[in-house]
tRNA-specific adenosine deaminase
Amino acid sequence: MVGFTSYMAAALEEARAAGLRGEVPVGAVVVGPAGVVARAGNRVRELCDPTAHAEVLAIREACRMLGSERLGGHDLYVTLEPCPMCAQAISLARVGRLYYGASDPKSGGVEGGARVFSHPQCHHIPEVYDGISAEEAARMLREFFANRR
Amino acid sequence: MVGFTSYMAAALEEARAAGLRGEVPVGAVVVGPAGVVARAGNRVRELCDPTAHAEVLAIREACRMLGSERLGGHDLYVTLEPCPMCAQAISLARVGRLYYGASDPKSGGVEGGARVFSHPQCHHIPEVYDGISAEEAARMLREFFANRR
């Protein structure tokens, strides 16, 4: 069955691959009516680019493929609660639904911190579904940071 | 005299050029100890990229030039109050000082809205100076939107 768990599984694969490259293991997938449009893992270190979070890379790639700066009718799956930069990019891209895995009380910007979607200055608010495969996403992050100590 | 007004003048030039390309006229400049490192105007429509705000493009270019995902010791000049995406990118890049022109009560994320720098989840807070050449920056935006009606 193709559904939200399989899309999150693809995001988790991207996260795992990012971890193997020495990046913080976060992965994201953009899904349209016909299935996966773009997928990406974090590449901040590789690209020397502080904006190269998984969500931003997946959104940029999906927009490039579609020839549009907006992704109406598309959903985004990401293994970790987006930071404020990524949350705003999701809003600017008009993503329909945001599915994310683990919460990020330390750096997140959706359910905590800046809560980007909860201000009148946010002109498009996606539907938000959290906690999808959260345990696996969180375990991957814990192991990554434990191994770096 | 080279100083913050001349750097903001360069950002205003970028904003003007963006407007001539049909983009919302916002410009940004990254300045290091030896002067301007990168400059950019908004290219959202041209690049079909919702993240291609002036600040993000200037930060990415400066990081590429310096071979680092961090811009410690560098300042950013932008003609308009950054949105939450750009504010968080400025934080992630460890920009030292943020100088901006006009306030953006409708979409800004620094002094209003998400107020990205004012939460414990924001791990680096730049020094912020607002209102630099604000009148010219605001006039350019007003004229742009008036002409589109």
Summary: The domain at 7-147 of chain B is CATH 3.40.140.10 (Cytidine Deaminase; domain 2). Strands of chain B lie at 27-32, 35-41, 75-80, 97-102, 127-129. Residues 4-20 of chain B form the longest helix (17 residues). The helical segments of chain B are 4-20, 44-47, 54-66, 84-92, 134-148.
